[in-house]
Amino acid sequence: MRTVAIVALTLIARTAAAQGWDMRAAAAYLDSRQTWWSAWPTAARDHETACVSCHTALPYALARPSLRAALHEKEPSSAERRLLDDVVKRVSMWRDVEPFYPDQTVGLPKTSESRGTESVLNALVLATRDATAGTPSDEARVAFDNMWALQLRRGKPAGSWAWLNFHLEPWEADDAAYFGTTLAAIAVGTEPGGYASRPEIQERLGVLRTFLHQDVAMQSAFNRAVLLWAASVLPDLLTTDERKTIADSLFARQNTDGGWALAKLGDWKRGDGSTLDSLSDGYATGIVTFALRRAGYAPNDPHLASALAWLAKHQDGATGKWMATSLNRKRDPATPAANFMSDAATGFAILALTYHD
Q: What is the pTM for the complete model shown?
């Protein structure tokens, strides 16, 4: 198995070079951004930890191990190690650490939203680490225990988690609890050692499935793309016909240049009244392509081939990143938030380009 993995990773590296994208430049960009994020005062949290952001830290945690393997790096980078150490610290000190956004300083119901969101993100980050290592961990078990304890149990939200809502699309908005629940499903299906089959989680996993099935047709194309990804690690989330319906709806939104535009994956409007970018971008193309690859669509499928070619062509040569822009407002390039969407774009472009069956 190890020989097969080495051969596969060698082919990824060769394919990357042939396609014209630079893995080392992408790794350098991600490392620099995560290092900046960990040191940015706005991201700082108690006990000398940093917030796990959906735009920078989470895509980094998901994508950096793939690059590390493809580049034959023996150890995590210092930025990756810092992120993992922060998550482990907050998981182990769960009862003592403050929420990302306490009610006392931000207002109700931010404590419960913060706890729910963080519990899912912690489980996903550690499950990704464990999957890379091939073995489950005690830290991930505790993270999952924390997560399940906060799963909502009553009413229409049953099966989901309270999720941060700052009216910021697509991760912290009115429908973001659905996105968060798909991430919980991905975490469960990613943790090695047969975690998804453990008897003690079946009841909670059942209500998670029920939540994701309700109103699925009403969800944004973005949320349905992430659901398609979740179904690749928890196969009984969707039937074959449901997977095809989602995939076909995504193909229908593909631009003629092979990419996808985030603006076309939901019914969104910017709060400042500025026009959303309708051109293909790295985040939409990366996450949709990755979800479709995970769903079993081969790289030589015409839709996927053109998407992968778009990604290989659109890495920024000067920085190593892929570009994407905010759904919420036109950002000033000089502000710290200007690169947040590009951080996410770079992480998911890498996941799409390095994925192998």
A: 0.94
